[in-house]
Amino acid sequence: MKSLLRKKLSYKKNYKLKLWLILIIFLLLILISVIYLTYIRNLTLDNIYTSLNEIGTQNADKLNLIISNQKKYVSQMIDSITDANFQSPEQIFNRFKKDMEDYHFNRLAILDKNGNGITNDGLLISNYPKIEEFFAQDEVYLSENRPSVVSNFQVNIYSKKFSLSGREVVIFATIKTEEYKNILSKEVFNGKGGTYLINNNGDIIIDSFGVDTQTLVDNKNIFDINNTEILDEDININNINEMKNNIKNNLSGNFYIKTANNKYFINYEPIDTNNWYVVTIAPDTIIAKETNLFLLISFIVCILIIFIITSISIYIDVSNKKKNEKLYNLAYIDKITLLGNESFFKEKGDIYLKNAVKNKYIISLDINKFKALNNIYGYEFCSNILKVLAEKLINILPLDNITCRLGNDVFVSIFSYRQDINNFMDKIYTNISNITVNNENIHLNLAIGIYKITQEDNDINKVLDKATMARAKIKGQYDKNYYIFDDILESTLIDEQKIESSMEAAIKNHEFKVVYQPKTFVKNEKFAGAEALVRWYKDDKIIPPNKFIPLFEKNKFIIKLDLYMFECVCKDMAYWKEKYNFVPTISINVSKEHFIKEDFIEDYIKIVDKYKIDRKNIDLEITESATIEENIDTIKILQKIKDSGFIVSIDDFGTGYSSLSMLQSMPIDIIKIDKVFIDKANLNSDKNIINYIMSIAKHLGVKTITEGVEKKEQVDFLKKLKCDMIQGYYYSKPIQKKEFEEYFNKNR
Ligand code: C2E
Ligand code: CA
Ligand code: CA
């Protein structure tokens, strides 16, 4: 719970950390995507080159097959012409007419050395240009593209010379250059790419159907790939030069070139004829399309993951914040005043102590007789008093004040103040002691303890103790309102520290001794029992209980001491039973600190049973103030004690603020009236109070004892009031065991 405040303080830090974490995850995702994309891209690149190679070789193979078939056919034609001894071109044309279409031939022609001749469709040709080129070949020859002399398209010519009727002639089987397009793959990469048939000078024999690539190679030579568009010239020129070289050496290859808008992947594959090459080109867009899709998917996935992570962490943050706030409020906020509570004060105060501010003060404040106010005005009204007081306090104290409510009516504040603290406290006191609640003006009797914090102070508990000590010093004094921790308190504190450091050893060394103060029946002045009281024998001196009991109550050592005393008493009682066959009724003080353990009485039972003492001979005195402890079910505890067989007394009755009506519901046997009432017994009003208590006690069937009776008049007075017992110096002071034995043997 305590760490919640720290949690709250470090919340911002955590938030920053989370932001960093999200950023790191984001960057990591981006990095992974980049690596992934590069990998995909390389994979696609490899794929592209493989596909390009495949298309290139397929096209080359197809071309090789067709061209060689065509060549073979031309060669067969010549063989059959020679064998059949044809006499005229018409005879020859007729013979081969039907096969022309199968071999994609467009025309046949026979020409003489002068370039004169006739075509199969009867067209006359004269002076065919560069006819010697064809007569220079011995084998079947395939020409480069050239314009047809009889039609207006490009053709390639298969030719072979032979002798017709003794004359040397050449046969032409022409093919429309366009026909190669039908042979080559039309759809390269879904029509995005293209194929070319080129000669080894880079001249394009057939261009591609591809649209994209058309723009790349818009002239007639592949080596002159549009230079103006080229971006990275060095790489492109090197690549093209390498291609030129490879083509010279009849090698195949792959490369890419970049233009301003695009990147092209190129494959070149030789075919068997005329050092021709099949060139396959694919634009980058096809790769980009694939990678872009991956990029898009990856990006969407990234964004989605980040979105999910962020949403989840925001959700967790918000719900944590809400939960923390709830827990925080529970753990640190006082519900009534909305100030911090004790835990809050200790954590914040600890931090405040460590800062370098000078002139720091801590004040502890409470309202005198707040319990009585509660009884008079009721719980809700008094809660409003606390609220108003809290508001006034934080408004009048310096801005840096940390003000909290420690519980009940106790407020603490820590702040810095440079001017005279006495004046300031006077001002505060006048301001906050008169308040208006529900239109009613209330004067509060406040007790304020102040401690000036020094540079050496670094423990919030210690400075708080000092302020509380100073407050205790003023508590109940009506002429002073505040007390500033001084040397007197400092020495008390030192004494207390000495006591605390020696208390454990004191038990071991049996420094605590029991004294017994006899009680006397009023009616016959006979012995009525005794109260066991502690004395501390330290270094031959007796330390009176008021010097250490309050301290032991604060540090809870009283629990141990009470049980130790109880055992001493039981031991004595067992001894008296043995020695005198008489067991006096002994009352023993039980501090209210025991009440934090609801079944503490079990510890007493164990001891009393150990010494086989009758429980009805033991009277446990519980102070009246114990009966109005908050959060403790005193009635239940008292009932347990009574049910165990012990006598139950209410000690110091009249000094606490329990209402007389409460008496009715309390399971008690004896009311012990405090000596303050008997001290002022000659005052008529107080006489009446005792009178009143007596009559109620009688009415409830509860016995009464008055303590602190010193004078004869007091005895007489109590006799008149029919008080049951008296305890006081008048009969005996508290006495040692031996003396007490003599006392009861004489008076019983
Ligand atoms: P208390 O329980 O009210 O005890 C009565 C106190 O009044 C005793 O003081 C007693 O010596 C004193 N007293 C008795 N008759 C007279 C008288 O006629 N005139 C005056 N002026 N005083 C009288 P003592 O022994 O100093 O004890 C003081 C307080 O210390 C006790 O008040 C009790 O609250 C506490 N105390 C003493 N012994 C123990 C103990 O063993 N356990 C616990 N928890 N508290 C103890
Ligand atoms: Ca007592
Ligand atoms: Ca008492």
Describe the overall structure.
With 748 residues, the chain is of the alpha+beta class. It has 3 domains: 45-298, 2-Layer Sandwich (Beta-Lactamase); 342-485, Alpha-Beta Plaits (2-Layer Sandwich), CATH 3.30.70; 497-747, TIM Barrel (Alpha-Beta Barrel), CATH 3.20.20. The protein contains 23 helices and 28 strands. Strands 20-21-23-24-25-26-27-28 form an 8-stranded mixed beta barrel, surrounded by 4 helices. Strands 1, 2, 3, 4, 5, 6 and 7 form a 7-stranded antiparallel β-sheet that branches. Strand 8 (194-198) and strand 9 form a beta hairpin. Helix 11 packs antiparallel against helix 12 (421-433). The longest helix has 74 residues, at 11-84. The two termini are 59 Å apart. Residues 1-10 have low confidence and may be disordered. Bound molecules: ligand C2E and calcium ion (2 copies). One calcium ion binds next to loops.
Please name the defining characteristics of this protein.
23 helices, alpha+beta, 748 residues, binds calcium ion, binds ligand C2E, 7-stranded antiparallel beta sheet, 8-stranded mixed barrel, TIM Barrel, 3 domains, disordered N terminus, Alpha-Beta Plaits, Beta-Lactamase
The termini sit apart by 59 Å
Strand order of the largest sheet: 20-21-23-24-25-26-27-28
* Shape designation: rod-shaped
Query: And the CATH topology of the largest domain?
Result: Beta-Lactamase
Number of strands: 28
Low-confidence stretches: 1-10
Largest sheet geometry? 8 strands, mixed, barrel
How many domains in all? 3
Overall pLDDT metric: 87
Specify the CATH architecture of the largest domain: 2-Layer Sandwich
Task: Kindly state the percentage of residues in helix.
Answer: 40-55%
Bound molecules: ligand C2E, calcium ion
CATH homologous superfamily annotation of the largest domain: PAS domain
What is the number of helices?
Answer: 23
